[in-house]
Amino acid sequence: xxxxxxxxxxxxxxMGHEWDGIEELNTPxxxxxxxxxxxxxxxxxxxxxxxxxxxxxxKGSEGTAGWTSRGSFAKEMDAAALARKPVLDALAATPIEDxxxxxxxxxxxxxxxxxxxxxxxxxxxxAGAAGGVGYPNLNDDDWLWGGTLTDIxxxxxxxxxxxGDEQTRMSxxxxxxxxxxxxxxxxxxxxxxxxxxxxxxxxxxxAQRGAALFAANCAVCHGPEGKGGRMVGAPNxxxxxxxxxxSREAVTNTVTNAxxxxxxxxxxxxxxxxxxxxxxxxxxxxxGEAFAPAAAPAAAAPAPAASGxxxxxx
Amino acid sequence: xxxxxPSGQPQASQPGTSxxxxxxxxxxxxxGRGGGAQGAAPSGLHAASKAVYPRQIDxxxxxxKWAIMAFCLAVYYITPWLRWDRGPFSPHQAVLIDLAHRxxxxxxxxxxxxxxxxxxxxxxxxxxxLFLVTSxxxxxxxxxACPQTVWTDLFQHVDRLIDGxxxxxxxxxxxxxxxxxxxxxxxxxxxxxxxxxxxxxAWILYFxxxxxxxxxxxxxxxxxxxxxxxxxxxxxxxxxGGFMREQVCVYMCPWPRIQSAMLDEKSLIVTYKDWxxxxxGKPAKNSxxxxxxxxDCDLCNAVCPTGIDIREGPQIGCITxxxxxxxxxxxxxxxxxxRGLIDYAxxxxxxxxxxxxxxxxxxxxxxxxxxxxxxxVWSAIGAGLLFALGIxxxxxxxxxxxxNPPFMLMSDGDVRNAYxxxxxxxxxxxxxxxLELGGLPGGRMWSEDMGKAEAARSLARTVAADQTEPLxxxxxxxxxxxxxxxxxxxxxxxxxxxxxxxxxxxDAPAAQP
Lengths: 314, 513
Prior knowledge:
A: mainly alpha, elongated, B: Immunoglobulin-like, disordered N terminus
């Protein structure tokens, strides 16, 4: 330990210690800097008192201000809910039939429905609502139970074949093959006939035999012409959309074992406004039906557009 | 004194050789501090700034500076008040940067955000224009047109108007603080503040309808950003123009550094012709040494707005404002000697003149290879912009295809693809337009506000003035259509017409084996 002395070169006092000839100059922090440090220390103490800061075994200190990140989040959510309230109230007050008359409200409903769809529906129907085998494509114009806004809202609210909901859409196709209603050969005849309805195969002898079987067993639900029945969710067999596939094997499987897809009733999980928004969104995907449905939705040759546009045919 | 070398080396820092003391009030200690770096105390990161009190001078370059200053200020203050008729749907301000609606209006030109390359092109032209000017006439930007120069000049005039010319200012600066000085200073600073405020205030008028904003600003109903912008710009103008002045050029601005790299011996700079001026000063009694033209009157220093001595040679502090040329010319005229002891000249020419050869005329100096290259690039960009402006469409289409699902089957077997088609009307009036399908045999389309039954090969809509109208369009093609490209064509149906096309993709299921 050497003595404190004044360093000649810098004219500064040394700290008084020396190691192998190396000494340290005493150049203290500027006072303002020092005071800033003290202020920071005071601030930190104050912070620990006011805010949750000190961890404990099961629970940290709570702080006198009572602030929590959850509380802060809840506040933000409340603020967001408050901001959305006018639109949601208007939606709640508007029957879904009247939505198309209010384009702005409809747009808000579609936007809200798009968000809700991504949370609740994409698991089965896919992100683009294109569905999959057994899960209907919601973009197209083929609806098992109806495609108007009210139909979709009803389906969403009560589900399809959903146990525990009395108003759920209900039907059950018999397992014609498995339960022995039809013999295996008869099933094949029916399959030939059904596939011939939409032109998947020519009407041969098997189809002729199948026609009689169809009239006896299937027409009750699917209609005499196979155009389906929305009362019981029976698919239209004459169109090109096949929920479970259109190959011989797929149709044979359907006739033999039957399908009965289930969709949950959402009324217990989602509030009526969200369901309304979802219905509006699904309806907006391009296949939604108007309330006065056209007489023949499918297969009819599209009328040449008379309205406004069409002067500039190439 | 007679022993000075005639080499043009710096001499001003040698105390005692300069008769500056006689010139009135210029403190020798100040001159010493400003000029000499060597021998001073090593401590301190930079030389302490010395206040500059440039003297009033008249002459051709001063008048040119007046004219350019008047022009620049007039352009700055008048432009936002110019009106331009754009019909009932667009603002009528000739030059308007409408950030809120994302439009730039410059007289007959309206620029949309996606056309920002026009603005970028203008900025590039401005940059290359600076290079071009530097290459042709040296630091003319610094000396005449830079806002820092214009406003500094303005503030220095205010100084002279209120405090008097250089000597009076020096005297006042040294005087103790008394009532008169405080009054004068307060008055001067409030004039500074008024100038700064009108500078910042005029800036915001470019961003909204000027008369409305002007009224709103003074009735306290303008948006907060207007007040904060004016506040910041008032503060910076006051600080940079009122107090920092030449230090901005010498210490803060990057441009002088770039300039020093761009100048060469062929560049026009303000040059003290030492071959003619040295040895400077009055001849000593009985001396037989012939003296140069420079009488060491120090007027060139007194008028310099950046406080340098041009006789020390080219230096970063010289903004080539040429006021020292005016000063020296006035003295030379008085003495009956030819003007141009300090003059615009290239280093190359100075060397030629030193050996007695004639100087190259200035108009010839301007045309060297570098200038021509800059001029070529600058004009090419300008011509390109004008061409692009001339052929640009006033309607545009953009198409975003639905990718999930890429396609889907309709119940009648048709294949449907969905697109978001944006119809963009860039005119200042509503326009009737028609969207047509090109290619895609059997294809038809309809939009979300109609049914498939009404599908056709074209859709007509009216697009509001200056708007982009998004429309969801469904395109169907008969079963068996292979995936292919087709086109959407957007055609205006009014007299002006015009059409744009967009090649889109139609997805379809792979053909069944």
